[in-house]
Automatic annotation (TrEMBL):
Tree of life domain: Eukaryota
Recorded coiled-coil stretches: none
Protein's name according to its UniProt entry: Paraoxonase
InterPro entries: 6-blade_b-propeller_TolB-like, Arylesterase, Serum_paraoxonase/arylesterase
Keywords: Calcium, Disulfide bond, Glycoprotein, Hydrolase, Metal-binding
Gene3D superfamilies tied to this protein: TolB, C-terminal domain
Binding site for Ca(2+): 15, 70
Cofactor, how bound (note): Binds 2 calcium ions per subunit.
Gene Ontology molecular-function annotations: arylesterase activity; metal ion binding
KW Manganese (keyword) present: no
Amino acid sequence: MSIYSYIYRNICLADIAVVGADRFITTNYAYYQKYWMQIIEFAMQSSFGSIVYYDGRQGNYLEKYFPTPNGIAINKQQNRLYVASTVNEFIRIYHLRKDMSVVFATEISLLSSPNKIFIETKNGNIWVALHPILYKAHKHMQNPINTDERSPSQILRIRLQDNDKSWVITEPYANDGATICGSSAVLFHQNSLLIGSLFGRTLHCDIDTSQIV
C-alpha cells in the first residue's frame, strides 16, 4: 500500500509523527467515518480511536482501542512516544522499542483537552496546546467566523523528572479566546513560543523560562 493510499483510507487521521523515510506513526481520532457517529463516540468517551505504525508497506496497530487520540510526538532519541487524548484529557507516554512496538510507561492527567504536542529536543519537556472548554472549541469549529463564539486557548509545559515517574506542570499561556481562539498547536525554541489556532491565526510570544519552573 502506498503512503497516499494509506492516508486516503485513514480519513479520521489526526496527527503524524515521522520516524524515518516512508515510515511514520499516526493517530486516528475515531472509528466511524460519519460525523453523527463520531459525535456519539465522543459523547460516550469511547475507546475506538487507534495508533497505527506505517512501515512503508502496510499499517499495523500499536494501540487499537485508544480514547480520541489526537496529537502525537516522538522524542529525539526515538524511544518515547507521546499521545494526547482530547476528550479524556490526558497524555499517555509509551516506551518505543526499536522494532516500533510500544510499552505503556505512564499517563498524565491534564484536566483540559489537549490538541497537539511539541517535545523540546534538549531536555524532553512536553509543550501542549489545549482547549480548556471543549464544547466551546466544538462550537467555534461549527462557525469559525462568528466572533461571539470564542474558544479559550491554553498552553501547558510538562517537565518530566525521576525517570518520567513524576512531573511538574506549568501554564505559560492562557487566554479567553480574544487574542487567539482555539489553540491547536505549539512550538517552542530559544524562549520563543509559537501558538497555532484552529482557523488561521498564529501568535508569537517571548517566554522567560526561568519564570515557569
